[in-house]
Design a protein that fits this description.
- This protein is mainly α.
- The protein has one domain (about 5-85).
- Helix content is about 65%, strand content about 0%.
- The chain is built from 5 helices and no strands.
- The chain has helices at about 5-20, 25-35, 40, 45-60, 65-85.
- It binds zinc ion (ZN).
Length: about 100
């Protein structure tokens, strides 16, 4: 990371995240915004990788936008599969009430 300003900002944001004063997702937004606008970061080839690395550190995998999309898709497929299974004809009449006659 060549940008001293971003280095300083990341340290400050990271402390806030640790104190739970800043949401990790917000910190990711701030970093993305900075590297999209900062002239130093725009010409730094490595800063994108650094931001990705920091994102992996502060964000749990389930909170990653891509993982979130995959998770939602998987949940939708599971719901569809469950709905299809519930409508399957072979499920009908299989369950009988067995009374205990003692
Ligand atoms: Zn910068």
């Amino acid at each position: 990371m060549q940008c001293e300003r971003l280095t300083r900002l990341v340290k400050s944001w990271y402390l806030q995240v640790k104190d739970e004063a800043l949401a990790p997702a917000r910190m990711v937004d701030f970093m993305e915004k900075h590297i999209a606008e900062c002239p130093v970061c725009l010409v730094d080839d490595e800063v994108r990788g650094e931001v990705n690395r920091i994102t992996r550190i502060i964000l749990p995998p389930s909170k990653m936008p891509k993982a979130k999309q995959e998770e939602a898709a998987a949940a939708r497929q599971a719901a569809e599969a469950a709905a299809a299974a519930a409508q399957a004809p072979e499920a009908e009449g299989e369950i009988e009430d067995e009374e205990d006659e003692l």
